[in-house]
């Protein structure tokens, strides 16, 4: 059965957004004008677009003011990309480009939550960040948002919804929420604030087992992960657990950098474009050593997460524990349109693991499969107070009870993070060898 494609965004809401959400993105590309002759042949069609926009501007009568000519042209470009029926390709206005850059840096103005949104469905809240505007007004995991400032968002894409939720610092946004256990939807108003996402977390576990968690593949995370591992090594780290669970992806370059830290082999991943041409992406950063390595994954580990996981599995460098990954084996490139300061984000290639595996809509199977309630992963809170973490744990317990019933919930909660526990168990075996 074909997997439903879900765009996941870390908000500001979002990508953080952009997919922000689950995109493996090449940061920029250029327009190839080597075939300008074909543009001349298309002049009749281009004139048709101009004619329609001029007619609309002069004659359209509606409930609202006619959009500006600039907005109409942007709509035409967006319509071309929309015709591709590809959830990962999109038109980016100049404002969108700015948001994209902010999201990749992990800093933006929004409401602070990760979400899942498919066109035609409500927005599902995956996780409101502790201390964020969303968390402060009581937004909970698994809440469904159906309206933003009174506008029905069911027909919208993830990024269109994100645009409604983001805005100026200290501005307000109202959302309509449906929640399991409540008969009627309710409204809450959030005050947007600046969100700073810490993408890399690290700590030393028992028996000198290092733990590094990566929230997403934003700008410069390769060097941040490198720094975190070196710090753990300076403390006597014997082995490393690298947590990529619920990591939706991000920059291909960062996936390349991070893979380089773990493998000696040169090839990390290769791409094939529309014409079948192959481009190899090789090692970049320095290899950090032969320490035992375990990678944690789940069904929301996507895109760049799968590039890293695929390379480590192909080269038998790490043991993969958890659940099968999402299955996104295609790459997008941001292609600027210099004359108008906007861009398109376009799917331009398929990617393959070093051994030639194409994982799109298939995912990567773990070496040791351990299923788990994903809410118990609790990633992203190392910088929060112990009380904040306890409050979130209690909140998650209540959600699981409503979903599973008291008896089943008690078993799940008492078991805890069984994937991490199994990783620690397996790492201790490796260390003793």
UniProtKB/TrEMBL annotation:
Signal sequence bounds: 1-22
PDZ domain mapped to chain residues: 97-166
Protein keywords: Hydrolase, Protease, Serine protease, Signal
GO cellular component: outer membrane-bounded periplasmic space
InterPro entries the UniProt entry points to: ClpP/crotonase-like_dom_sf, CtpA/B_N, PDZ, PDZ_6, PDZ_sf, Peptidase_S41A, Tail-specific_protease
One term of GO molecular function: endopeptidase activity
Highest taxon above the source species: Bacteria
Classification via SMART domains: PDZ, TSPc
Keyword tRNA-binding: no
One GO term (biological process): signal transduction
Family recorded in the similarity comment: Belongs to the peptidase S41A family.
Name of this chain's protein: S41 family peptidase
Organism field: Leptotrichia rugosa
């Amino acid at each position: 059965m074909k997997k439903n494609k879900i765009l996941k965004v870390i908000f500001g809401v979002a990508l953080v957004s952009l997919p922000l959400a689950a995109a493996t993105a090449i940061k920029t590309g250029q327009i190839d004008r080597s075939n300008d002759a074909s543009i001349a042949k298309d002049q009749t069609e281009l004139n048709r677009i101009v004619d329609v926009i001029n007619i609309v501007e002069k004659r359209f009568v509606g409930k609202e003011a006619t959009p500006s000519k600039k907005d109409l042209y942007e709509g035409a470009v967006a319509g071309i990309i929309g015709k591709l029926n590809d959830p990962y390709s999109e038109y980016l206005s100049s404002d969108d480009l700015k948001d994209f850059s902010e999201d990749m840096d992990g800093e933006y103005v929004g409401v602070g939550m990760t979400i899942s949104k498919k066109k035609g469905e409500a927005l599902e809240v995956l996780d409101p960040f502790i201390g964020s505007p969303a968390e402060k007004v009581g937004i909970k995991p698994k809440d469904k948002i159906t309206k933003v400032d009174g506008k029905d968002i069911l027909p919208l894409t993830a990024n269109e919804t994100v645009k409604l939720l983001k805005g100026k610092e200290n501005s307000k946004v109202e959302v309509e929420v449906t929640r399991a256990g409540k008969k009627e939807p309710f409204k809450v108003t959030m005050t947007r604030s600046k969100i700073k996402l810490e993408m890399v977390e690290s700590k030393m576990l028992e028996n000198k087992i290092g733990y590094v968690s990566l929230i997403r593949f934003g700008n410069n995370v390769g060097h941040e992960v490198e720094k975190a591992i070196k710090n753990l090594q300076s403390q006597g780290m014997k082995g490393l657990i690298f947590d990529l669970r619920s990591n939706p992806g991000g920059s291909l370059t960062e996936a390349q950098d991070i893979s380089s830290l773990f493998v000696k082999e040169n090839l990390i991943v290769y791409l094939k474009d529309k014409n079948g041409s192959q481009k190899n992406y090789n090692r970049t950063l320095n290899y950090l050593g032969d320490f035992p390595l375990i990678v944690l994954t789940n069904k929301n580990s996507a895109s760049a997460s799968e590039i890293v996981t695929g390379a480590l599995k192909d080269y038998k460098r790490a043991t993969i524990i958890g659940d099968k990954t999402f299955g996104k084996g295609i790459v997008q490139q941001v292609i600027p349109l210099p004359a108008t300061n906007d861009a398109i984000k376009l799917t331009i290639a398929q990617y393959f693991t070093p051994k030639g595996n194409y994982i799109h809509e298939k995912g990567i199977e773990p070496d040791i499969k351990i299923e788990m309630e994903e809410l118990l992963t609790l990633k992203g809170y190392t910088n929060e107070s112990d009380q904040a973490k306890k409050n979130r744990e209690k909140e998650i317990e209540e959600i699981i009870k409503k979903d599973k019933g008291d008896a089943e919930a008690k078993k799940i909660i008492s078991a805890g993070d069984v994937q991490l526990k199994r990783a620690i168990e397996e790492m201790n075996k490796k260390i003793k060898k």
